[in-house]
């Protein structure tokens, strides 16, 4: 029997049989209760031919994506963000650090379409130049937290037993560390002016949440009949995880990650506010948004533009995430 | 069906909001002379013992419930006798104090010379951990009750001698002519016996001898103070009392004031300064207070104290456009500094708006030249260190840096350098670990020029964070303290102060004003020179 | 089931030990708390030494920790920076925060799931787009701004609520703060439930249920929703930490003296007694919440058993 684990989780009170076959049978029975008759077919057949056509799911997804206009638009927006992050002077030749206090909080003026902030810096220039730090923090922290979270959460959910206990309890402790405390302890000793300590810190704090979501999804997905079937047919752990569970468990992770991207960019501002985030003279949306928020009554335009830029970024990634999720959903085929 | 469900949810939420509004309103309010006003407050950091309170919020309460030998006139800041009938000296070292008869504490106990001597002995004794203990360091015997390390060799200050119930003498360990004028400070207040016999009960409900008595005190929420009928002084309360309400944020207090749920805020948030006159229809006050903000240099660091470094420090001072920053960032609630004291001292008290001269004027060309002559910024760049957790320093630090950058014609000559916590910031200062100019400030303890100079720039003084040391300065301060003539003393202090623009141990930035906003129910609102509202003069209704 | 729960509860012991050690060391790493008590002027060294001695700060870290743990087992959580016992702070802050959190979670469940199901069923329609825009708004506008604007409009302009919460912090006063607190999480819950609905609406059992001719409402609530809820429930479980300990901004705006506020003050004042006490309680709450979430998995999807 290739899969000795009948109840992969911490089953202490097996609700029925003890062997893999029994477990399968019971799942069948439960599923049948709710979904009798036909209709369950697509999942299992989609799996079997998979053996003949390697990577079918992922390559199918890619084919779908290229034809999806939502994906194309989102990808173009993200490409644009990457370009201005690398070469901000292409569209904003000014200097984001050159500020004249006499212009403090003034509205738009010729050559300064977005107006000025409290320090009299040009908001347009700062929004464009802020993309680099913010997009880097947002994307890298999200990718880092999502990969780490999905990996550890997926393992915990799939393996169950002691792996789940250890990983889940570790993440409980992480949840307990207040951001303020963690930031002050880990970031105040850092002297680097790059974004990487901030990215690392956000990953450290962010993975447990995504991990929990991934764990929940994997626990659900592994109950599916086709997963049980694949295991019964002798598929290896890696193969089951990647081929059968991941595509079905990835959606909530994508959703949480795309929104987390936006909150991580704002979190960077919180850290800066605490004096431990990005160090000046780094320019970022987060810093400008947090500076603008206390001035909301005096100069709402200071908030409008960096927050707008953040919105567009988050929107692009939500659309991208939606498109990827759709492409990976076998039921939509 | 689903849409209607959503609509129901929204409707329910709105209904709940309306219900809250109705439930949250205040009851009827008294309009006669005995009206009680509500004011914003923050929990004091330390227990409300007079010698253990050195911040405004605790000081606010002590100012209401205590009266000492002297009191500072809320308007002129002059020290006037209150409980003291007379304080006399011939040698500027031994002071004979005579008390007025008839004063009592709120519990009926008479205020005698023992009430002062016991309180001062308690404050000075090291094992009582009073953070204002050092205010007694000029009293003979302080080194015995408060040794640098180890156990105290005596329990009482040998310089305090009781003659009878109304007379006692104080012997100082050095000449200090203006010492009587320091006696309005909270640390010198008398204490009733119950403070020593049932300390915990006293802390729960402090008993003093001032115009107000504490009716109830709930830590973390607020304190109710009521006018005390038995008060003998001339400054009895003209209102029925004050309800101090603890706020987590001054912006919330301000919003509560706008909504009519609060009568008085004495700290208008910086972001509302542009709107405050319109919001409150002119019920707003912005008056000088004894607070100066400076930028101190770590003179223990070679980079800032080498040869010609005073030119560097002068140059940086002249690269700061104080006028522009106080106007744009502080909306004129701070005034560009022209000396190292405060306007509340008045010209007679030693304030002199010509003392700093060109060094405090914005002059980019001269600044560039001086910085160059002074060897340039150490390493080509400087940072301004501040703590990020309180007081929104970031805005002005960034503005100062921008001003320096513009003056020196270099975009990254100066950047702000936030430190996460005030505690860490203070530890770095005290541990002499600062590598860059850092935020410093001084709120006076008593309105004397001595208080703006000696604790800050005298060699080894308690708040000499720059670790400035100049023998000439020290000699002049000593001479001024020994001077029996008040005007001559002030002149000598000013002579010492004239060394500061030459040496610039700290750049004088601006004088901070106190601000207050109040509701339509109040009249006669004023702030004293310590930026604390003069509660006993506020009329309600 | 019962044994599973007991085992999970027993896991609290190592987590408790781990958390207290970790937080204790972290607060210790922040530095010496005594200097800050004297404000902008240096403490005189003798007084500072006396305070340090009384706080046991003149001992090595491990002795401080052991002494602290000894105190805890006697039910004494120590004294906070402002002289109040930590147990007293907990007793005053926890009930307020619990009320606030419960309300916020209710908002997340009711509004979030309703919007999620609605938009999931009507993908691409105006309601879906409007919700997406709302989501973007909530993510990119800081809590401080939404909180302040709501407080200003409802409290000052329209006079519908009192801008600040009284010290009793009744449920009705906490409605607006809880809404503000829940906003960011609402974005997550809405998107998560929308995606789950989109995924499951094509699932066989839903098609079957529809084909069987069950009423639409019954299909949605009994079949679709139930299976869509697992990620949502997981998210809410993880969110309790953010809601309880991280409500610093919301609590400040509405003058709520809750856990977030006290914890923040404790951290800024480098006060290990307050921080360790509060975080320990928070971690216990997360453990219970996550246990509840795991038990809910089995309720929502009967194929999952530990359960």
From TrEMBL, chain A:
Main location group: membrane
Pfam families reported for this sequence: BPD_transp_1, OppC_N
InterPro entries given in the database record: BP-dependent_transpt_permease, MetI-like, MetI-like_sf, OppC_N
Membrane topology: Multi-pass membrane protein
Keywords attached to this entry: Cell membrane, Membrane, Transmembrane, Transmembrane helix, Transport
Positions with biased composition (Basic and acidic residues): 1-10
Membrane-crossing residue ranges in chain numbering: 70-88, 135-158, 170-189, 249-267, 303-324
GO biological process: transmembrane transport
Keyword Transport annotated: yes
Family: Belongs to the binding-protein-dependent transport system permease family.
Protein name: Oligopeptide transport system permease protein
Organism, as annotated: Actinacidiphila glaucinigra
From TrEMBL, chain B:
Cellular component GO terms held in the UniProt record: ATP-binding cassette (ABC) transporter complex; periplasmic space
InterPro entries xrefs: Peptide/Ni-bd (IPR030678), SBP_5 (IPR039424), SBP_5_dom (IPR000914)
Disordered: region residues: 33-52
SUPFAM superfamilies for this protein: Periplasmic binding protein-like II
CDD domains: PBP2_NikA_DppA_OppA_like (cd00995)
Residue spans of biased composition, Polar residues class: 37-52
Annotated GO biological process: peptide transport
MF GO annotations: peptide transmembrane transporter activity
Domain of life of the native organism: Bacteria
Residues annotated as domain Solute-binding protein family: 81-463
PANTHER family: ABC TRANSPORTER SUBSTRATE-BINDING PROTEIN, PERIPLASMIC BINDING COMPONENT OF ABC TRANSPORTER
Designated name of the protein: Oligopeptide transport system substrate-binding protein
From TrEMBL, chain C:
Name of this protein: Oligopeptide transport system permease protein
Organism annotation: Actinacidiphila glaucinigra
Gene Ontology CC terms: plasma membrane
Highest rank taxon of the organism: Bacteria
Position of the signal peptide: none
Gene Ontology biological process terms in this record: transmembrane transport
Residues spanning the membrane: 12-31, 96-118, 130-154, 174-192, 224-249, 275-300
Cellular localisation: Cell membrane
Protein family according to the UniProt entry: Belongs to the binding-protein-dependent transport system permease family.
Keywords, sorted A to Z: Cell membrane, Membrane, Transmembrane, Transmembrane helix, Transport
Lineage, opening ranks: Bacteria, Bacillati, Actinomycetota, Actinomycetes, Kitasatosporales
Membrane topology: Multi-pass membrane protein
CDD domains: TM_PBP2
Domain ABC transmembrane type-1 positions: 94-297
SUPFAM superfamilies reported in the protein's UniProt record: MetI-like
